[in-house]
Design goal:
Length: about 325
């Protein structure tokens, strides 16, 4: 029986990829990072997503990351693997490898080079789902693939037995509200949202949780916020949202857009003693002024010793 016969509920952080250089993992940091999140009560881990800089990594490194992560997790939580690619064959090969490594599901966004229409994207995703040896989440990530999936496209994929849910990073809460209507068609599907500031609202609407990058650094905050939303505790939601806003300052220290977000998050993890803050090309490293500001914020948030709490096996 598939693990995803019912929704996966909670926080599934899109894990960063700890690097020593552009093609070498920070293995000790990876151990600490996984332990830091699992011990905080996350519902799963998602590797090789946007926050994991998947498309910037060599195929060799992607496979190593999947294998190492599954070894460290050792079945304690589900592992989801991003297989987004411009090639159906490459996506399927990574799916096959991921199953052998012990992963539980794969995640696929539309291919990102050629300009495509909804029909072409739908058939591409259907082709991958047809032959994937693991259940597949559909990933809506318009800022990166330059195409937003329509609710109608996802509805047309809802008859596929090997598709187990949707991860939405479009940032349009009304789109997400319409998406949730598919719950009546697929009660077994998992509906997860990416933007951190929308996670609690999405759960109150009937969503299943978040794939939130800040969960790498501050997983207990996101787990607590999900739990408060799940029990509809508005007072606690409001309190935790204030803490979330403070964490969000980290993403503005190192520049705007995806580069600033990733550089800020990874440098925050380094300041917390969890893993290397190195980013994969084409992103560039932070400077000393930014590093000092990040360290100050991490201390203010009470995360400066986070790495010491993540015991390496």
């Amino acid at each position: 029986m598939s693990l995803f016969q019912k929704p996966l509920r909670g926080i599934v952080p899109p894990m960063v990829t700890p690097l020593l250089n552009r093609d070498e993992l920070d293995l000790a940091g990876l151990d600490r990072l996984v332990e830091h999140q699992v011990k905080a009560g996350v519902a799963g881990l998602f590797v090789l997503g946007t926050t994991g800089e998947g498309p910037s990594l060599s195929y060799r490194l992607r496979y190593e990351l999947v294998e190492r992560t599954c070894e460290i997790v050792a079945g304690r939580v589900p592992v989801l693997v991003g297989i987004t690619d411009t090639s159906v064959e490459e996506a399927l090969e990574l799916s096959q490898f991921s199953k052998g490594a012990g992963a539980n599901a794969v995640v696929a966004a539309p291919p990102y080079y050629f300009g495509l229409g909804q029909a072409e994207v739908r058939e591409f995703l259907r082709d991958v789902a047809d032959e994937s040896v693991l259940p597949m989440f559909v990933y809506n990530m318009p800022s990166c693939v330059k195409l937003s999936l329509t609710v109608e496209t996802i509805e047309q994929l809802s008859d596929h037995k090997n598709i187990c849910g949707v991860k939405d990073s479009g940032g349009d809460i009304e789109w997400y509200r319409q998406l949730l209507k598919l719950r009546s068609v697929r009660p077994d599907w998992t509906f997860l949202i990416g933007p951190e500031h929308l996670m609690a609202e999405s759960v109150l609407m009937g969503g299943d949780g978040g794939v939130n990058g800040g969960g790498n650094l501050y997983p207990r905050l996101f787990v607590s916020l999900f739990q408060a939303a799940d029990r509809k505790d508005q007072k606690e939601i409001d309190r935790l949202q204030e803490e979330l806003l403070r964490l969000g300052e980290l993403y503005n220290i190192c520049g705007a857009g995806p580069a600033g977000y990733l550089r800020g998050l990874k440098s925050g993890l380094e300041a917390a003693g969890i893993c290397s803050g190195r980013v994969a090309p084409p992103f560039i490293e932070i400077d000393e002024t930014e590093r000092t500001r990040v360290a100050a914020l991490i201390k203010t948030l009470g995360l400066a010793q986070a790495g010491k709490a993540a015991n390496v096996k």
